[in-house]
Structure formats: structure tokens, C-alpha cells
Write a structure and sequence with these properties.
This protein is α/β, with parallel strands linked by helices and 178 residues long. 38% of the residues lie in helices and 17% in strands. It is globular. Bound molecules: ligand AR6. Residues 1-175 form the Macro domain.
Length: 178
């Protein structure tokens, strides 16, 4: 078996639709994989209508699931669409949220991708408290990425300074705990 390599995890403030140095960006999708608000709005608008068309036969997906498509007019190679849990509705929310990150990284590694950018899944319209979501997201990425053969960089792209700082502090805490 090939040796796995150390994966860098970074947390930045930015727009998930504008990450040109990244192989695959992750969409906080709806079950129908069509344009929505927040991340799904930003990515589908930037990608153009071809993304919705490619998604149609892949839908619907279930909470925790991930599917991969081309990136159309986005400056990336792929989009990985994840349906996060609606907080307090899709249970167990923590396991379903972790499954999103695990399944997305599995698809990225299957496609031999070296870099993936995630938004903070489920923390907008789906109501997941960001502190809890950040811990689950970062812990899952730290664990799963150890078993990826190709991955070198995972970037969390957060919409404001407060969210970016929260993710950086959570990452530091988890790295000290491990
Ligand atoms: N770049 C990075 N982060 C963003 C961006 C952006 N361009 N836009 C919003 N965020 P959400 P969810 C942040 O609602 O909770 C959609 O309508 C945002 O501040 O996009 O998984 C879909 O159609 C928040 O912290 O995703 C679904 O129905 C986080 O990204 C539903 O909402 C996720 O917010 C999915 O809800």
C-alpha cells in the first residue's frame, strides 16, 4: 500500500465560489441538487445552468450523502455536493454531518484529487450551531484525511472573520488534544 502523506488543513475567510487553486469545492446542497440560497446559490450562479442539468439525474440525495459533478464555469475541476442535516430534524445530526465530510473526502480521493475546499455545512439555512459543527467538521477531516492517498490540502472557506477565527481556534484545540 502506498504511504499516505500529511494533509494541511487551513481555515480562511472567503467565498467558496472563488477558490481557483482548489481541485474540488463542496456545495451545501439541497436534496434536489438545484440552485438555492447561500452556498448553493453562489456555486450554481457561478457555475451556470449546466451544473443544475448535470445534477438532475443524480437527485434526490439523503442527509449525509455526497455526489460529484463537473464544475462547469467555476474555476475548479469538480463540485462535490453534500446534503447536510437540518439541525434538530435529521437525526443523529452529528453523525450525518460527519458523514458529509467523510463521504466528500472519499469521493475526492477516489478521483485522485489533491485539494478540497469546504464551506461550513448545515450552519446557514439548516441551523446547525457553528461551534458544534466546526468541531465535528474538523475532527472528521483530521481523522479521514489520514487515510487518503492523494489529498494534500483541505481548506475551510468561511463567510466572515468570526467564523474563520472560530474554526482556527477549534482546529488548534483539536490538534493539541490529538
Ligand atoms: N462562501 C462560503 N460560505 C458561505 C457562502 C459563500 N459564498 N454563502 C454562505 N456561506 P447554507 P446549509 C456560509 O445556508 O445550512 C440552501 O438554500 C453561511 O454563512 O448555504 O447547509 C440550499 O439550497 C453558512 O455558515 O447551507 C439548502 O436548501 C454556511 O455557508 C440549504 O440552504 C452554510 O450555509 C443548505 O443549508
Amino acid at each position: 500500500m502506498a504511504a499516505t502523506q500529511q494533509v494541511s488543513i487551513e481555515c480562511i475567510k472567503g467565498d467558496i465560489a472563488n477558490q481557483p487553486d482548489i481541485d474540488a469545492v463542496v456545495n451545501a446542497a439541497n436534496a434536489e441538487l438545484q440552485i438555492g440560497g447561500g452556498v448553493a446559490g453562489a456555486l450554481h450562479r457561478a457555475a451556470g445552468p449546466g451544473l443544475g442539468e448535470e445534477c438532475r439525474p443524480l437527485a434526490p440525495i439523503k442527509p449525509g450523502q455526497a455526489v460529484i459533478t463537473g464544475a462547469h464555469n467555476l474555476p475548479n475541476r469538480y463540485v462535490i455536493h453534500c446534503l447536510g442535516p437540518v439541525y434538530g430534524v435529521d437525526e443523529p445530526s452529528d453523525e450525518l454531518l460527519a458523514a458529509c465530510y467523510r463521504n466528500a473526502l472519499g469521493l475526492a480521493d477516489d478521483h485522485e484529487l489533491t485539494s478540497v475546499a469546504f464551506p461550513s455545512l448545515s450552519t446557514g439555512a439548516f441551523g446547525y450551531p457553528m461551534g458544534e459543527a466546526a468541531r465535528i467538521a474538523l475532527m472528521t477531516v483530521m481523522n479521514v484525511s489520514q487515510n487518503c492517498q492523494h489529498l494534500q490540502l483541505v481548506r475551510f472557506v468561511l463567510f466572515n472573520d468570526r467564523a474563520a477565527e472560530l474554526h482556527r481556534r477549534t482546529l488548534e484545540t483539536l490538534q493539541h488534544e490529538s
